[in-house]
Amino acid sequence: MKKRVCVIGAGPSGIAAIKNIREVGIDVVGYDANHDVGGNWIYNEKSSHSSVFETTHIISSKTLSQYEDFPFDPSVADYPSHQELYTYFQSYAEHFDLYRSIEFNTLVQHCKRVDNTKWSVRIKQNGKERIEEFTDLVVCNGHHWLPKYPNYPGKFSGEMIHSHQFKKAAPFANKKVLVIGGGNSACDVAVETSRISKKTSISWRRGYRIVPKFIFGKPTDIFASKISFIPTAIRNLLAGMIARLIVGPNRFYGLQKVTHKMGATHPTLNSELLYKIRHGKVHPKVDISHFDEAKVHFKDGTNEEFDAIIACTGYVLSHPFFDKNFIDYSSGSVPLYLKMFHETYENLYFIGMFQPLGCIWPGSEQQSKLAARALKGKWKRPMNIKALCEREVTHPHIKQISSSRHTITVDFHRFLNDLKKHLPKKKKISA
Asked: How confident is the model at residue 263 (pLDDT cuts 50, 70, 90)?
């Protein structure tokens, strides 16, 4: 039977999938609700699929964020802006002639697996619905688009939004702003609003580890990659010691003590937050106890009135085009071999559904190469794939604290190596 593959999403993972599947001579069609490639990195002032805001820069360096088959232009910044990334993904799609394989402004509404050789996919395009049939389905819809909101007792009478809706700091000028969260988005939002707000505070439920974007003049992930050969536990220990040496303990900044080991949560890369705190522009607060109209009560017994709250509390892993009784990874574990192969459904692939301590796209590219080989019949699923799927859950690369955010974590370098073991070695070009 001739293969016809459906790729859901034309973000960074989706275009890598389309490119690599096309290269092995298989018919592929990509669907995306946006008007162009880029996914989250298409900045839009209105609330949309995109989660970037006006001043967003990536938190991994360009060297460890680029596709193996399409390096960044040397002129691109060490930490590219969303504008540079959008241009990069457009250039990738143009270079590999991907646009002719993608239908934009198209929503995938429902996917039904008929059997091991057929999928029925219902799409909506220009207000009209239609059914398309495919032999295989490749899911690349991302996992940073469905906001997860916090739940506290009481009611807040001011404005409350999720970071997904935060597009620029301007609307918060001269307002008292409370940012909830200690991750990368929270710290970026706190820094940006502090430039023009009347007062910006940031509420943490626990101590977070703040890591600078540069260590000894090098992007942090580049510096860390120099010791990637060391076992993960020892490497994380060294990284934690170096970070503490550079920034000092959290108590110097009025922040809660870090009680977990390096790697037990995703580190927060930010070189401005601690500066802003020590300059009196961002004010640390502990976790919230409850709301009382405009007043927010904190667990240390203090309270304060705010005009606006920005909840930077993460996202829900969601696949709305699947029936809940078919696949639902919104809570609990994600037992997929190499974070892409289901133990039962051989014509289903997930690309980019993992969270590295680094950038997703290099891993997505390698997953796409492996998916292409599998679709072409050049790679066979292991006979013990059920056990391997279970092992993904019981033996994670890094032991992290129990949280829905940490169900798909991988070690960046180890994950790339795990994937490349299943791919042909690249031939070295002799001088």
From this structure: low
Under a CB-based contact definition with an 8 Å cutoff, are residues 13 and 352 in contact? Answer: yes
Supply the pTM of this predicted model. 0.93
Q: Where are the alpha helices (DSSP H) in 173-326?
A: 184-194, 220-225, 232-247, 273-278
Question: For residues 237 and 260, what is the distance between their CA atoms, to the nearest angstrom?
Answer: 11
Beta strand pairing call for 136-139 and 4-8: parallel
Least confident of 70-79, 319-328, 397-406: 397-406
Identify the weakest region by mean pLDDT among 14-18, 176-180, 406-410.
406-410
Query: How would you classify the pairing of strands 118-125 and 106-115?
Result: antiparallel
Tokens representing residue 42 in the block: 């298409």
133 Cβ neighbours under 8 A, 6+ residues apart: 4, 118, 119, 120, 121
For 117, phi then psi, to 5°, come to: -130, 5
- CA separation for the pair 366, 422 (Å, rounded): 10
Please give the Cα distance from 42 to 51 (Å, whole number): 9
What is the distance of C-alpha 76 from the center of its chain?
A: 21
Q: What are phi and psi of 299, to 5 degrees?
A: -70, -10
CA–CA separation, 183 and 310 (whole Å): 13
- Specify the residue for token string 């120099």: 226
